[in-house]
Write a structure and sequence with these properties.
The complex is a heterodimer of chains A (356) and B (549). Chain A has 356 residues and is an alpha+beta fold. Chain A is built from eight helices and 20 strands. In chain A, the strands form four sheets. Chain A has a six-stranded mixed sheet, with helices on both faces. The chains are: A alpha+beta (356), B mainly alpha (549).
Chain lengths: 356, 549
């Protein structure tokens, strides 16, 4: 089922929880709403579920506007952050709940519940109460309960946030696998950018009620359009620069950051003063012999933190701005100490020009 | 969506109308009556003027305040160490002492007074015993007796609130004070006590409120020591047609006090309580044998003295009696036989009225809780305030208000059982609402939403999912409501009429005419009827009295 959100605005009193949000989700896509807490992503999800009615705009399933269809007739399957399992019902009855509401025959209920419990690897747990299950198992029951009704759309509201880190990783793999197997259109809400990248076909970055950017995880990471997206997806060094010259033939932009001239391969920017995003892993520490290469600058190590898989430096460069630098697999790197003077460089293809 | 909205509106209107007709309007009615002259029928301040002019009335006010303050102090003196000992030290038989120690608060106070009359009345057995050997010990009559009964029956409130506070102090708090160099006494004075203080006051306020609102005890053993509730009742019920204006103004003065106490409770004590994130409960210390024994003795004696009156009543019920003369030592079931065969009506009436009030109360409680907890808004906020109003009205005052309002005019209810059921319902429904709404608050809305999402309409989702989850709590609330209405005297005494005499009225009247035998039989039936549901509450639902109040 294709889902279209068209110009949705939702107010709570004076606060605009969602501000003119529009997006299209193709049939079978895994679509994630990603943003910090309080950004409006859950409100948007609950609007799709029918728990909120929008002040403006339309929610469309397939070709049908469903604004006036009450929540209990929307045929969505929702997985709640706290699972919302019925504590007085056994696993079987929890999963069967939606089927019974649909007056499915008891034989078919048994067969469908057993089959879905098998696919979430919970066969044999039918007679347990939710309180007798671990967090991960409760999560699977919640997923099974939402999926068993064959919903048009699967809605997931921070489903993994109550699990510990290891379980979170294995559960997200499993959710992704089941989603692909069933080919069900899914809207997933999370504040965890790594989780979003791991599971999603498309991500919408939500900030203060507005959708900042929609794209594949790859696009969002490498081509962030705004400072917010650049900083929210991974970490980023944000630098202000003034355009010095533009070479149309080579598509090469020269900008000044303080005293230094930086080369960037990019289409011509529309503005004279621009903002750059430079990811810490794009910066390398180089030796004297690299001096002649483009984009090599001098800096001083401010701090050095060893994190196992990487080494993180803060370098003072471009006239004293703190720059975060990450060296992966640092075993063979020559470790610098605070106060050391170093040279650093980055590829002219890498920096991203942000919309202000 | 639209249809549901209007359905809830109808519910809202019914709820507000119920509250308006059973509380707001009757209170307004006697408020108005208190400003109307009995002679001219015009607006007048004459009854208030009389109140503040005649020492006779002013003394009632002073007596009420005095006896309540004294009872509060004594209840604190008993309840605080009781709480402290049981929470902090190893005491043999702790759990049974705790259970028995909370019982007095659910047992009817006027039955306690009856027992003391049997023991220390003018014809009391203890009094007579000492009189025979030439010793005149004090009788139970007057303020001292009232304070004795109140403090013995109300100290459990102090005990419950204080021990809850003591047990919520994380042990690291006291440990860090010790670590910073404070002596044991200093730790107690500067950390433990200040943290517990709001709860001590909260408990004290409850005792004060219950004392000033009480009617049965002062009317039975107060004699010349008149208090407000008794005087209001006398003015209203007087043989000479009564003085509605004076009854009204006495009620208003009592109402002003109880309302003030309730507001104080809500805004002052609630704000000053320290919520602590619970990490490690305080350590229970094992003292040396002698101090342990002394603590144990204190606790056991207190519980024994508090429950002794009820044992006396039970014994009296199976004692051979002839009019006011009791032959202690001579066993007889006559009192029960008479109660069950000759006059079973009061028992049936009480059961019927309590059950009716409770059933309506449970449904009402669920509906109002839903409105208050799940449909937040200015209307539900008003409802939340309004629904707690009955808690601030003394039973006598409510009885007088209902009787005065529905005596004539478009709705006449006096002389029917309805007015009794209504009074029971409205007096105790706040408890039902409190339990249900606090339960509902604990149930995450997402549980309901999950059900709706799976295809069940909202109202049906509430019935299928939320009510089953709340059921044990609802049952507990219903049991509490049932037993407390069963023991209700202060509004019943104003509102009952012949055929609808209740057990409480029957006991009260029998005590008045000195028929302690039959009175004790009814009292015993009442005590058993209260204890059996509480036992069920404890054993089947696994809830104790303290957590259900």
């Amino acid at each position: 089922m294709r889902v279209i959100i068209k110009g949705i605005t939702k107010r709570f009193g004076a606060l605009k929880a969602i501000d003119n949000a529009s997006l299209t989700i193709k049939e079978g896509d895994f679509f994630t709403l990603l943003g910090p807490s309080g950004c409006g992503k859950t409100t948007l999800l609950r609007t799709v579920a029918g728990f909120y009615s929008p002040d403006e705009g339309e929610v469309i399933f397939g070709d049908q506007v469903i604004n006036d269809i009450p929540a209990h007739r929307r045929e969505t399957g929702m997985v709640f952050q706290n699972y919302a399992l019925f504590p007085h019902l056994r696993v079987f009855d929890n999963v069967a709940y939606g089927l019974r509401a649909r007056k499915v025959s008891s034989g078919e209920i048994r067969q469908r519940v057993e089959s879905i419990l098998k696919s979430v690897q919970l066969d044999g747990y039918e007679e347990r109460y939710p309180s007798q299950l671990s967090g991960g198992q409760q999560q699977r029951v919640a997923l099974a309960r939402a999926l068993v009704i064959s919903p048009k759309v699967l809605l997931m509201d921070e489903p993994l946030s109550n699990l510990d880190a290891k379980l979170r990783v294995s559960m997200r793999e499993e959710i992704k696998k089941i989603q692909k197997m069933l080919g069900i259109t899914t809207i997933y809400v999370t504040h965890d950018q790594e989780e979003a990248m791991a599971v999603s076909d498309y991500i919408a970055i939500v900030n203060k009620g507005k959708i900042e950017q929609i794209g594949t995880p790859y696009d969002i990471y490498y081509k962030p359009r705004s400072r917010f997206v650049a900083e929210f997806m991974g970490s980023s060094n944000i630098l202000s620069a003034e355009v010095a010259s533009y070479d149309d033939e080579k598509e090469l932009l020269r900008v000044k950051i303080n005293e230094d001239t930086v080369q960037i391969r990019t289409p011509k920017p529309s503005s004279e003063s621009i903002m750059l995003s430079l990811r810490p892993e794009w910066i390398q520490i180089v030796g004297e012999e690299a001096r002649s290469q483009p984009n090599v600058f001098a800096g001083t190590i401010v701090s050095s933190t060893f994190l196992g898989s990487m080494l993180r430096y803060v370098i003072s460069g471009f006239g004293g701005q703190p720059l975060s630098v990450e060296i992966h697999d640092p075993q063979n790197a020559q470790v610098k100490e605070a106060g050391d003077n170093v040279l650093f460089r980055f590829d002219p293809d890498r920096p991203v020009i942000l919309d202000k | 969506m639209r249809k549901l909205f209007t359905a809830w509106n109808i519910v809202l209107i019914v709820v507000f109308a119920t509250l308006f007709l059973s509380v707001v309007y009757p209170i307004f009615f006697i408020f108005k009556a208190s400003f109307i002259s009995n002679e001219t029928g015009l607006l007048s301040l004459e009854s208030y003027r009389a109140f503040f002019h005649y020492p006779y009335y002013l003394r009632c006010l002073r007596n009420s305040l005095f006896v309540s303050a004294a009872s509060t102090i004594v209840a604190m003196i008993l309840g605080i160490p009781f709480a402290f000992f049981l929470s902090r030290f190893h005491v043999p038989g702790k759990s049974i002492i705790k259970t028995l120690g909370t019982l007095p608060l659910i047992l009817p106070t006027f039955i306690g007074a009856e027992a003391w009359l049997i023991l220390l009345g003018r014809n009391g057995i203890l009094y007579n015993m000492f009189h025979k050997i030439g010793l005149d010990i004090p009788t139970i009559y007057g303020w001292k007796g009232i304070v004795l009964v109140f403090s013995l029956q109300f100290f459990p409130f102090v005990f419950l609130m204080v021990s809850a506070a003591i047990n919520s102090i994380d042990s690291s708090l006291e440990e860090s004070a010790t670590n910073l160099g404070a002596t044991k006494l200093r730790v107690f004075r500067t950390v433990t006590l200040p943290v517990v203080t709001p709860s001590i006051f909260a408990g004290g306020l409850v005792v004060f409120y219950l004392s000033i609102e009480n009617f049965g005890v002062p009317i039975l053993i107060g004699e010349d020591f008149r208090v407000l509730s008794v005087q209001a009742y006398n003015e209203f019920i007087s043989e000479m047609g009564g003085n509605p204006s004076m009854a009204g103004s006495l009620s208003m003065i009592l109402l002003a006090i109880t309302l003030g106490l309730t507001v104080l409770q809500k805004y002052w004590v609630e704000r000053k309580s320290y919520a602590m994130s619970f990490l490690r409960p305080p350590e229970v210390k094992r003292l040396k044998p002698l101090p342990t024994f002394l603590i144990w003795l204190f606790c056991v004696l207190l519980v024994f003295v508090a429950l002794f009156p009820f044992i006396v009543v039970i014994i009296a019920s199976v004692t051979k009696t002839q009019g006011p003369v009791m032959y202690f030592g001579q066993f007889s079931f006559d009192n029960f036989v008479k109660a069950f065969t000759l006059a079973p009506r009061p028992i049936l009436n009480s059961f019927f009225l309590s059950t009716t009030a409770t059933l309506v109360g449970v449904v009402f409680g669920i509906v109002v809780s839903y409105l208050v907890v799940r449909r937040r808004g200015p209307v539900s906020y008003l409802l939340d305030l309004l629904i707690m109003l009955p808690l601030a009205i003394a039973g006598t005052v409510l009885g007088i208000a209902l009787a005065a309002t529905y005596n004539k005019g478009p709705i006449v209810l006096t002389g029917t059982w309805l007015i009794l059921a209504l009074a029971y319902f409205i007096r105790k429904v706040p408890f039902s609402i409190k339990t249900t709404s606090s339960l509902l608050q604990q149930i995450d809305t997402s549980i309901e939403e999950a059900s709706i999402n799976l295809g069940v309409p909202p109202l049906l989702s509430f019935i299928k999912v939320i009510i089953p989850i709340m059921l044990p709590g609802i049952l507990a609330g219903a049991i509490i409501m049932w037993v407390t209405t069963l023991a209700e005297l202060s509004s019943t005494i104003v509102l009952y009429y012949g055929p609808w005499t209740t057990m409480t009225v029957e006991i009260f009247q029998r005590i008045g005419s000195g028929d302690f035998g039959p009175a004790s039989a009814y009292a015993t039936i009442l005590i058993v009827s209260v204890l059996i549901p509480l036992f069920i509450l404890n054993k089947v639902l696994g809830k104790d009295l303290a957590s259900s109040l």
